[in-house]
Amino acid sequence: MTFKALFVEKQGEETSLHLKEITKEDLPQGDVVIRVAYSSVNYKDGLATIPNGNIVREYPFIPGIDAAGVVAESTDARFAEGDAVLVTGYDLGVSHFGGYSEYIRVPADWVVAIPKGLTLKEAMMIGTAGFTAALSVQALEQKGVKPEHGEVLVTGATGGVGSMAVSMLNNKGYTVVASSGKQEAHEFLQEIGASKVISREEVVPEKIRPLGRMQWAGVVDPVGGQTLAAVLPNVKYGGAVAVSGMTGGVNVPTTVFPFILRGVQLIGIDSVQCPMDTRQPLWDRIATDLKPEPVLNVGIQEVSLEELVDVFPKILAGKMTGRTIVKVAEL
Length: 331
Ligand SMILES: NC(=O)c1ccc[n+]([C@@H]2O[C@H](COP(=O)([O-])OP(=O)(O)OC[C@H]3O[C@@H](n4cnc5c(N)ncnc54)[C@H](OP(=O)(O)O)[C@@H]3O)[C@@H](O)[C@H]2O)c1
What we know:
Layout: E1 3-11, E2 14-22, E3 32-41, H1 43-48, E4 66-74, E5 84-88, E6 103-106, E7 112-113, H2 120-142, E8 152-154, H3 160-171, E9 176-180, H4 186-191, E10 196-199, H5 200-203, E11 216-221, H6 225-231, E12 235-243, H7 257-262, E13 265-268, H8 276-286, H9 293-298, E14 300-304, H10 312-316, E15 323-327
Parallel strand pairs: 8-9, 8-11, 9-10, 11-12, 12-13, 14-15
Antiparallel strand pairs: 1-2, 3-4, 3-6, 3-15, 4-5, 5-7
NADP nicotinamide-adenine-dinucleotide phosphate binds near residues 44 and 129.
């Protein structure tokens, strides 16, 4: 039996994408074979398609850091044929053939049982971006940030992580201020749960002072760089910032003052190696109290494996709004 997969190939300094027919023998080792129904598009997937993206280690390669489907074969007692499952992170789509393929074979330790209340499609609408947003929201909760403490800022709010975070925070009763570079997306942001929308310029002034107005009870920041440097001085006493991304750059020119004079807490968020004893219970929350219903209703585009090629340049340019899912096969 042959099936379809999208490969990224490298010729000299250039990369290109090709749909190919392969067999299960071409898949890497693992305990569980999954028939993939949906995958999704994350910033990291965009990076995997370009020559200097620093994601793919060996070519030809199948990208896709997310996959949801049903178990086709399992040698591990935790999973049986027909189970609805998802995989995000670990080495999937990085050094292990990823989700842009009708079948994947992975270690059982990477597999999450899809909780009741989530379809395969919804699981991929949420995907790595939504899981990262959920980790960020849970981190703020664990650091003691409560709705009554005041406004919570979400940067890069129209992106995958940002839009999911807006909706999840709104579910939990926080007053959400969304920062976005997209003027045209203000209505969308309000629809998914933002009580106020501000521009990137309002968040990042020309001159960043070591300490500013105590404005934010908490911040979910998938942007990093100058944006992170600019929000830290404006966090309230004892507030917290959950940082997950770097679309705005990797260098953060800041000072120690927010930390040592205001007890501000900076929390690093990693969805890739997040341990299973955090991962599975958090997916259970994503299916219940954190479920980002408004984004699932208005913020999703669906493409086929063939149409994916046109999506990567858009996510790399920061031009996406909401999430894009990939329909890999009809199950
Ligand atoms: N730590 C983890 O485990 C983890 C997991 C998932 C993603 N990430 C990282 O999180 C980041 C976001 O991922 P994503 O999938 O949500 O990407 P995305 O959908 O492309 O969203 C990124 C958003 O950031 C904003 N943005 C883009 N360029 C910017 C710039 N130069 N300055 C300020 N804002 C800018 C844009 O929102 P606006 O136009 O609304 O401002 C954009 O939509 C990426 O760096 C990704 O690698 C990390």
